Amino acid sequence: MAKILVVEDEPAIADLILMNLKLVGHTGFHAAGGNEVMGNIEIYKPDLIILDIMLPGKDGFTLMKEIEPLGIPVIFLSAKNELNDKIMGLKLGADDYMVKPFAAVELLTRIETVLKRYKTAGNNVIVIGNLEVDLDARTVLLDGSPAELTIKEFMLLEILIRNKNIALSREKLLELVWGYDYMGETRTVDVHIQRLRKKLDLDSKIKTVYKMGYRLEVPR
User: What is the pTM of this model?
Assistant: First the structure.
């Protein structure tokens, strides 16, 4: 998976991000101030940077001007929610801009999207017991034999894999797989989860989280 530098001066937010990165298999490093960043880049050689704007020392916009020539993808994560700030961040070369407060699952999804674009996410063939999933080729093997999934079933499986060991609500799964404007019910998620469990022998791994949703449990 990827090496990710988290530039964030709020310890609670930094810890939350680092914990979630670890849960999905990434390696996270932390810089609490702007003056540490370039040195940390040299030491850790990150695949991606999550960058706050309001920092002690150099601010995020100043840092972006120094990072951009290095070709490292950047996601701004800031409490600055004005349109002008977002435009400035993207014009400076950032790949994405998220506003605090944020949902960890959305940040992880955006990270994977950016990493996939840069093809730095590492080996995208995931093995879970007797199941082998190639996220790039979008193929699934069960006990070495191809398993046929619909587009939505594969998308749901991919979201569960990319957020393994994290509980996802039905509403969030509905949003990520079917889109913001989908008019159906969360029952749709339950039906597709049951199909994945049956088709891929995942009864013991896709856990139901009471009154919330589902979690794909994978040994760490």
Answer: 0.60
